[in-house]
Amino acid sequence: MAVWLADPPIQLPAIVDNPLESFCVTPIVLGCLDETQFNYNPEANMSDGSCEYAEQGYDCEGNITEPYIGMSAYGGVVFKLDDSGLHGMVTTLKDVDFVGWDTAAEVCKTYNDGNYDDWILPSLVQLSEMYNSLGFGSLNGNVGKFADSNYWSSESSSSGKCNQSYVFSKTAGYINCETDNPNLFVRPVRSF
User: Fold this and answer.
1) Tens of pLDDT along 128-171?
2) Nearest to residue 88, comparing CAs of 145, 129, 59?
3) CA distances from residue 133 to 1, 119, 139 in whole angstroms, order as listed
4) How many whole angstroms separate alpha carbon 110 and alpha carbon 82?
5) Does residue 110 sit in helix, strand or coil?
6) CA dihedral sign, ordered 36, 29, 23, 21
7) d(CA 174, CA 148)
8) Strand pairing report for 76-81 and 72-73
9) What does pTM read for this prediction?
10) Sign of CA dihedral 158, 122, 192, 87
């Protein structure tokens, strides 16, 4: 027997003598329902809150997938990314020395953090990028833990009469011309 309730008609099934015959019991399988997570359970039909999400910038196996400014990776902390977002520059997580300009490049060249040995003394542009992305000029504050002081660059003035440093001040970052050879901080960089 069919019952018509609407126009156009919707047919409902006939009433069964034993109502339990028309029901299926589906067992509840708990697990992670998010298909993007490595512990996704395709058998699960109810979430148990067990999904494990990878850390920002990494996949579930710990491989770097999307570097970002401020990420600790590649032996340092990322301060610049290229247009692809996969390559850029890192600086060390600390000042490595306090020396004169005449030895600063060598300090960087011989620096080895245990994994990487291709460090160089940064240019003025790279120091400015560090100041603005990780230093006092960053929206996130001085996450690079730079001293409120001068850092050697790899450059000398066009006249050759001074060696150039970059000042990491709490109020501004700027280029300074050093006519003597004072001891200043050294913060190596490398590309990845």
Assistant:
1) 999 999 999 999 999 999 999 999 999 998 888 899 999 999 99
2) 129
3) 75, 19, 8
4) 26
5) helix
6) positive
7) 12
8) antiparallel
9) 0.74
10) negative
